[in-house]
Amino acid sequence: MSLKVKGLIAQKGTEGYKNEVEKFLTEDANLYERCLEYLNKQMKPLEEFYFKWLSLSQIPSWDAIEPISDKYRNTYRQCKMF
């Protein structure tokens, strides 16, 4: 949350809107948690891919990349994230 928003929330709290501020902060935290849960759920199918070769500490062979590339392409098409 930005400093400006934090300041506005603190100001409203001192103006007698404590219940509203508490409700807003609770909903804000809940929204953040739900967003994280959603993103983690959508990224779950990608966990099975092995991307160690992306560090390029060694020159990868196409034989190591191709199966991952094909599987990723198929999974991405099924992903309902976008």
Task: Describe the protein.
The protein has helices at residues 3-14, 18-43, 62-78. It contains 3 helices and no strands. Helix 1 packs antiparallel against helix 2 (18-43). It folds into 2 domains: 1-43; 49-82, no CATH class. The model has no long low-confidence stretch (mean pLDDT 81). The chain is elongated, with a radius of gyration of 22 Å. It has 82 residues and is mainly α.
Short description:
This protein has about 80 residues and is mostly helical. The chain has helices spanning about 5-15, 20-45, 60-80.
Topology (elements, then pairings):
Layout: H1 3-14, H2 18-43, H3 62-78
Helix pairs in contact: 1-2
Comma- or semicolon-separated keywords:
single chain, 82 residues, mainly alpha, 67% helix
- What is the average of the pLDDT values? 81
Domain module count: 2
Helix content: 55-70%
Q: What distance separates the N and C termini?
A: 25 Å
Give the SSE order as H and E letters: HHH
